[in-house]
Amino acid sequence: QLNPALGIPTFQDQQKLYTALFDFYNKQGGVQCRKLVPKFYQDNVTDPSAEHATCLQIEQDGVFAVLNNLDNPQEFNCVSQRHVPDVFYTSPHTPTMHQYAPFVLAAPPDYDRLIKDYVVGAQQLGLLTGKKIGILEQTCYAEENTDIETDLAAIGFPSNKLSRYNYGCLTTATDTPDQDQSAALQFQRDGVNVVLATQRGAVTGFAQSAQNQGYRPKYVIMNDQLMSLIADNSTPPPSSFDGAVAITTDAEGSSNTPGSQPSPATLECTKQTAALGFPPPDDQHRLAGQLYGSGCDVTKIFVAAASHAPTLERTSLARGLAAAGALDLSYPGGPMHVTDPNVPTGGQSWRPAQWYSACTCWKVTDLRWRPGA
After folding, report:
1. Residue 2: predicted pLDDT
2. DSSP single-letter state for residue 7
3. Pairing of the two strands 361-364 and 349-356
4. Taking phi first (over 0 means left), then psi (-120 to 50 degrees means alpha), and beta for anything else, what does residue 240 get?
5. Which residues make Cβ contacts (< 8 Å) with residue 73, sequence separation at least 6?
6. 3-state helix, strand, coil in the chain (%, to 5)
7. What are the pLDDT digits (tens) for 199-249?
8. DSSP structure string for 280-314
9. DSSP state string for 51-113
10. Quick one: which of 98, 17, 46, 27 has its CA closest to 298?
């Protein structure tokens, strides 16, 4: 019921898109001469008990694989935990991806690689300079905090050059103004001039509190869907966020960038959405379009994995994805080329983007893709 207010497609509209996508692939022969048959489940992301009930129903129904992951931290891996392959539309957490292998696949990179590209990319762009780096952290996934500090230490930023503010685990609410103010006061006191984050939801609230007290550090963000959350928000970030840099492994920002051309997969996905009267996947100011693009991507990944699997079994999809070769994904997805079945996630390359307050949009500042971790 909240979907339209949040810019998210309704359950019925999502069902229409996936039905059209399955029809598209079935007309091409399906998967290993088998027809794809969708079954749809509603996901209440704000209610862990409802998500758990959905997960148990999926298991009981005996579905072969699931497209899109549950979102609440308590239920994130529930489907793969039950040995049902799950093609994530968000980044999976690396320890649990390995724990529940080979049942976790994903369009974006897993967090270990995402964070390493974030840190190394920021260093290569000369963004990590100054007295101290501030990190906005969270406790839902403590390994992210360990990853970013380890990767910073590896490029010469030891623990004593970091200032950390932990927001706890925000599962049902966003950061509070008091938290944002405390974090901004701490970073200002510690002489932080570059802010990084593993707590993605707190960045713009922090920036507003920092600006309110006359503190204007530089921002470098990791794009675990944060770019779209910022661009699609009805309340844009404060003026001091202008020029913030994102290290992104997907195509976000390219639709606003002169010289960029939509990928063939984006054009095909646009054809599918247009036939249904839906917004295109590369409309950065409409979250619905981007979610439709993610739907095109997870469906394509599943079809590629299943089509190249040595046997059409749940345990074989990760090997099938590694055998599929390079995949052209629709916006917002970037290039994907899985070579290791033990890491069946995308994001094998990255590039920088920048926030422009004048258009309330991201633009890619260098269209070249650079090899990732």
Report:
1. 46
2. T
3. antiparallel
4. alpha
5. 140, 141, 169, 171
6. 40, 15, 45
7. 888 899 999 999 999 999 999 999 999 999 899 888 899 999 999 999 999
8. PTT-TT-HHHHHHHHHHHHHHHHHHHHHH-SSSSG
9. HHHHHHHHHHHT-S-EES---STTTTTHHHHTT--EEESSPPPHHHHHHTTTSEEESSPPHHH
10. 17
Q: Check if the beta carbon of residue 6 is closer than 8 Å to that of residue 287.
A: yes
286-325 pLDDT, tens per residue? 889 999 999 999 999 999 999 999 999 999 999 999 999 9
Q: Which of 294, 284, 186, 193 is nearest to 236 (CA)?
A: 284
Closest CA relative to residue 210, chosen from 223, 197, 198: 197
Q: What are phi and psi of 57, to 5 degrees?
A: -65, -40
**Measured between alpha carbons, how far is 286 from 279 in angstroms, rounded to an integer?**
8
Rounded Cα–Cα distance for residues 294 and 14 (Å): 11
Residue 286 token pair: 């409409």
Tokens representing 327 are: 């995949």
Under 8 Å between Cβ of 201 and 232? no
* Interatomic CA distance for residues 189 and 235, integer angstroms: 28
Helix (H, G, I), strand (E, B) or coil at 5: helix
What tens digit of pLDDT does each residue of 160-214 get? 999 999 999 865 557 899 999 999 999 999 999 999 999 888 899 999 999 999 9
What is the CB neighbour count within 10 angstroms for residue 44? Answer: 16
Per-residue CA distances from 98 to 155, 184, 333 (Å): 26, 36, 23
**21 torsion bin: left (phi>0), alpha (psi -120 to 50), beta (else):** alpha
